[in-house]
Design goal:
Elements: E1 10-13, H1 20-25, H2 27-47, E2 51-57, H3 79-94, E3 99-103, E4 106-107, H4 116-125, E5 130-134, E6 138-139, E7 142-143, H5 144-156, E8 161-165, E9 171-172, H6 173-185, E10 193-197, H7 217-223, H8 230-241
Parallel strand pairs: 1-2, 2-3, 3-8, 4-7, 5-10
Antiparallel strand pairs: 6-9
Length: 248
């Protein structure tokens, strides 16, 4: 069933093909999903008096600096980032009410959910003894629960404008893998050899931005958000994966 005027004040637009490789493989299809469809949805929402909350991405940055704030220039090098920036620019030029949340890499706390930590935990508990990992890629991952909370707070406070939705802490991918191994080792042996390398060493069709870490101070100030520490989530995830009865 569709939303009718008066039934909602805000709507989050999460529709996207968020996979850079998939976007590049079919630029026309990904543009329809990442640019045309959101613009159509936004126009319909405005007609009903509903404020859109658009999910953008950390990949609007080229990764040359890191610890980005909202006023830093967006210079995407990935097609996916270029598509998201096109919608950001269109919204900014509209003069109409909206919010843009630039999502960092999202992680969860459920085994098998396919997010960053869960995938590593599954590999290690599945018997992997050697993992190759980029040491020169950095970001500020955000817990999926914080994503939902942020969207609700933005809507409840009618917060408008551009904000970074990230964990507000910078980590390299290697640091996060080492954190995962340590979380498992706290409960059982985890004899994993890590092979550090460059993100450029992986066979990727587009060069990846090296450092897309972001600061979320503006969103915290606007909404009162306090972001979850990945260490807390990792401990919960590992205990669930190991079947501990006390795992919340």
């Amino acid at each position: 069933a569709g939303v009718r005027p008066g039934e909602a004040t805000h709507a989050a637009i999460l529709l996207a093909d968020p996979q850079p490789d998939s976007c590049l493989a079919d630029p026309e299809a990904s543009r329809r999903l990442n640019v045309t469809a959101p613009q159509t949805l936004v126009a319909d929402l405005w007609e009903m008096g509903i404020t859109p909350i658009f999910a953008s991405t950390e990949f609007v940055f080229d990764g040359a600096a890191g610890n980005y704030v909202e006023s830093d220039p967006a210079r995407p090098i990935l097609l996916y980032g270029q598509q998201k920036k096109e919608v950001e620019d269109w919204l900014a030029a509209s003069g109409r009410p909206h919010a843009v949340l630039r999502f960092a890499k999202v992680y969860g706390d459920q085994p098998g959910d396919g997010t960053l930590f869960s995938a590593w935990v599954a590999q290690i508990l599945g018997g992997a003894t050697r993992l190759r990992c980029a040491a020169d890629q950095a970001f500020s991952p955000v817990f999926v629960g914080d994503v939902g909370e942020a969207i609700l707070r933005v809507a409840a406070g009618d917060v408008r404008g551009l904000y970074h939705l990230s964990g507000n802490r910078r980590f390299t991918r290697l640091e996060l893998l080492e954190m995962t191994i340590a979380a498992i080792a706290a409960h059982r042996p985890a004899p994993v050899v890590v092979e550090p390398c460059s993100i450029d060493a992986f066979d990727l069709p587009e060069r990846r931005p090296k450092d897309v870490s972001k600061l979320a101070d503006a969103l915290a100030a606007a909404t009162g958000m306090r972001f979850t520490d990945p260490e807390t989530v990792l401990d919960r995830l590992v205990r669930r994966a190991l079947g501990h009865a006390d795992a919340p």
